[in-house]
Design brief:
By secondary structure, the protein is α/β, with parallel strands linked by helices. The chain contains 19 helices and 17 strands. The chain is 29% helix and 15% strand. The longest helix is centred in the N-terminal third of the chain and has 22 residues, at 2-23. It comes from Zea mays.
Length: 605
């Protein structure tokens, strides 16, 4: 008995040492894939030197870190390494694959919407980079140049040759800033818009570009401090969105079809369509009603190209005067129904402004053809069908008030208390908790920067926050060198994406059990705060981690904050994906892991 007691004490001591070690560290993975330029190993070595581990005293954790669970997990058999996928999957987009898309109806572009594979058809392998892949140019050079090896698709250089979209020159693509409707360049086009819309005054901060091409409008709006989300379908205009993201411009694969856009109501200061081929005059105005939903009160809608300017340009458009005139007449009628005010039409560009509130719209315009939508959450959009109805605005007590609250101009908007918080529209959040959240993430981001000095260098241009909360991570990082796609999971307890937009930031809803609507290798840095705990009983960790691996650029990085027992499981899968782990110190806060994890791959696939 004495011997057994001694053995038990020894075993308990070892258990406590293991638990203390696990709970005293968070995982820092700084792992880089070898790029075609062969520079990955040098960067990895430099970062490893910057992130040497140190022990952290006085750590304590909540009781949910179970010793039995941790030990049982470490006893599990080793996960078999994931193999590289076949080269045909280099540009794999799981929910927008052509072969699956063609099995769906073409009405309302349904076949171009998201159609994700069932579990039995999911890929459990690592998406390879194309041969010769090299690190993208840094911003702002990336705005104008993209390596051919990274996006080896030349079709747009032929199809859009006279429209100045993109030119192939040697081993690079050059983007002169042109577009179908602005072949003389985006700068001149934006100047035209700015003569009517207060773009340079900080009042227009967030914009939506529908049917964006290679996103040159969004690329050049950065000069005006405007953040633009651009979208286009994955169709015969090969690699539009891939080019946009490779240039360092926010974009996603999407279409105005039959389901709602993945944004909350009253999100954007401006929406734009430049010859985007969306049938605005069709479907009883349903697409214009969806734009109305996502536009902020007082926001602007820009439409350039057919049918605007038909009296001058109809011959070049190969449509009859009568057809174009009838199309514009319908658009004007729908705009009137929505209570939009046309403020300009010149040189083939028409601009409308959305009503400030519902009181400012004459009741006679709310006829049976303009039925108001039912009262639903402004976040209830994921896979929900669009309807022919007008989204109601929050009530106001005066015709001069802005429905939902007036926003400050940017950059003051970034830290001003958002109206949704002030008005108590977001359950569980107050002015005080909002301000505390900002302070907390400022501290976290400073710690990240102290750990990885590359964060401030422009090395990470395209950044994603997988569980963005109030957007405080993105706010703390705010810089012209980078942008953050703030994702709010569809299963989050509280939808905060409206708050994020009121701060002058951008983002979208997404379910992380599915593939994200982007191409492989499109983000430099991925931040994950509590994602694996949130999805623990929803889908497999492998699915989430393989998707992170797919969208992460070679030589990219990931920061993961989560519970210790969750990270133990994540680490095992990461090792099977050729990711490497490092240990580093950080602070303890609440029930989250004290610190972060930097990920990447340094083995070729």
């Amino acid at each position: 008995m004495a011997r057994n007691l001694t053995d038990n004490r020894t075993r308990n001591t070892l258990v406590m040492i293991v638990i203390f070690g696990l709970c005293s560290f968070f995982y820092l993975l700084g792992v880089w894939q070898k790029s075609g330029s062969g520079g990955g190993d040098g960067i990895q070595t430099w970062v490893n030197e910057q992130t040497k581990c140190a022990q952290l005293p006085n750590l304590s954790f909540e009781t949910h870190h179970s010793a039995s669970n941790l030990l049982n997990d470490t006893d599990n058999s080793k996960i078999e390494p994931f193999k590289p996928c076949d080269e045909q999957y280099t540009d794999y987009t799981p929910c927008e694959e052509q072969s699956r898309a063609m099995t769906f109806p073409r009405d309302n572009m349904i076949y171009r919407e998201r159609h994700c594979p069932p579990d039995k058809e999911k890929l459990y392998c690592l998406i390879p980079a194309p041969k010769g892949y090299v690190a993208p140019f840094r911003w702002p050079k990336s705005r104008d140049f993209v390596h051919y090896a990274n996006v080896p698709h030349k079709s747009l250089t032929v199809e859009k040759a006279i429209q100045n979209w993109v030119h192939y020159e040697g081993n690079v693509f050059r983007f002169p800033g042109g577009g179908t409707q602005f072949p003389q360049g985006a700068d001149k086009y934006i100047d035209q818009l700015a003569s009517v819309i207060p773009i340079a005054e900080g009042k227009v901060r967030t914009a939506l570009d529908t049917g964006c091409g290679v996103a040159s409008l969004g690329a050049y709006l950065f000069k005006k401090n405007v953040l633009t989300i651009s979208f286009a379908p994955r169709d015969n205009h090969e690699a539009q969105v891939q080019f946009a993201l490779e240039r360092g411009v926010p974009a996603y694969i999407g279409v105005l079809g039959s389901i709602k856009l993945p944004f909350p109501s009253r999100a954007f200061d401006m929406a734009h369509c430049s010859r985007c081929l969306i049938p605005w005059s069709g479907n009883d105005g349903m697409y214009m009603m969806e734009v109305d939903r996502v536009l902020r009160p007082g926001g602007y809608w820009v439409l350039s190209g057919p049918p605007i300017g038909w009296k001058i340009y109809y011959e070049g458009w190969q449509h009859s005067k009568e057809d174009l005139q009838n199309e514009q007449r319908k658009i004007e009628q729908f705009a009137q129904l929505l209570c939009w005010k046309k403020i300009s039409e010149k040189d083939g560009i028409a601009i409308w402004r959305k009503r400030l509130n519902d009181k400012s719209c004459s009741m006679k315009q709310y006829n049976p053809k303009g039925v108001k939508c039912g009262l639903t959450s402004d976040s209830d959009v994921w896979y929900k069908k669009m309807e022919v109805c007008i989204d109601p605005l929050p009530n106001v007590n005066s015709v001069s008030k802005v429905a939902g609250g007036q926003l400050e101009p940017f950059p003051k908007r970034l830290y001003a208390v958002p109206p949704r918080i002030t008005l108590g529209s977001v359950p569980g959040f107050s002015v005080q908790s909002y301000e505390e959240d900002n302070k907390l993430w400022q501290k976290y981001v400073e710690a990240y920067k102290n750990t990885n000095n590359l964060l401030d260098t422009g090395r990470y241009r395209n950044i994603m926050d997988m569980n963005a909360g109030l957007g405080s991570f993105a706010a703390a990082l705010e810089s012209p060198k980078l942008w953050v796609m703030n994702v709010v999971p569809t299963i989050a307890n509280t939808s905060t994406l409206g708050v994020i937009y009121e701060r002058g930031l951008i983002g979208m809803y997404h379910d992380w059990c599915e593939g994200f609507s982007t191409y492989p290798r499109t983000y430099d840095l991925i931040h994950s705060n509590g994602i694996f705990s949130l999805y623990q009983n929803k889908c497999q960790f492998e699915d989430i981690l393989l998707e992170m691996d797919r969208i992460l650029r070679p030589e990219g990085a990931v920061i993961i904050r989560d519970k210790v027992d969750v990270l133990v499981k994540v680490e095992k899968i990461a090792n099977a994906m050729r990711w490497k782990t490092r240990l580093a110190d950080h602070e303890v806060t609440g029930n989250l892991v004290p610190g972060c994890v930097y990920w990447g791959e340094n083995l070729p696939v």
